[in-house]
Amino acid sequence: MKFIHLTDTHVIGGDRLLYGANPARRLARAVDSIIADHGDAAFVIVTGDMTHWGDADAYAAFAHEIRRLPMSVHLMVGNHDDSAPFTQTFPDAARDTAGFVQFTFNTPHHRAICLDTKMPGTHAGGYCETRLAWLKQQLEQSQEPVLLFMHHPPFAVGIKAMDNIMMQDAEAFHDVIAPHKHRIQHLFFGHVHRAIFGNWRGVSFSCMRGLNHQVALNLNPETTNVPGDLAQPAYGVVLLSEDFVVAHMCEFAATSPRFLLGAPEGEDNTAYQLDMRHEGFTDL
Ligand SMILES: [Fe+2]
What range(s) does the Calcineurin-like phosphoesterase domain occupy (predicted)? Predict the structure, then answer.
């Protein structure tokens, strides 16, 4: 099966620009692309930061686009979300009994556990005792393979300004998942606005780019202001089966040339490769 990992859409209201880009228009393009190219996806999951400022106009613009998707959509909150307008716009958004925006659902071979890592009043993430107890209960309730979804990563990625606002309760979080790590098949997160892949204490993970501004690769530990750029927006296309999780990055708005690597039947392969030119494309 296939699903779409969409994150950090950072929509604002009023058809305005944010850092020189139009997040609502970018979300519209992403939705168009998902419908056209991945309409068979089982679901779309949004790992937080639906809007940039959490205001009603922004949630209205976000909802206007996201509701065009024909498959089910799972909404998670990030540090920019879970304001009153979110609740007003999505009154049926899944929450636990304590009111946190966290929930579970099943795929054919996995149990998806979606965490609310927002802490009020800060961009840093957190996971309090109440939420830890909820997670512990979810993990103990079944023995199925697990996929974890969260906004803030529970570890540093090497970009100082983002590491400062990672999930602050990482050790307590790790203690809860540790007895279940053998069946946690992957951890998906957002927040860092980059494609990052790796392994944290035995758990494989991936982070996907956002749709508006991205975080630039700056590994200088002295850089404490978040480095940004406008790299191509992207969403994740994830293939799942009983024995694999494959995460692709789809740069849905890219305009770089596309072509077949092999010559058409009967043509010389070497000449095909050497003679290829692309209108409007200038190489490095
Ligand atoms: Fe974000």
Answer: 1-194
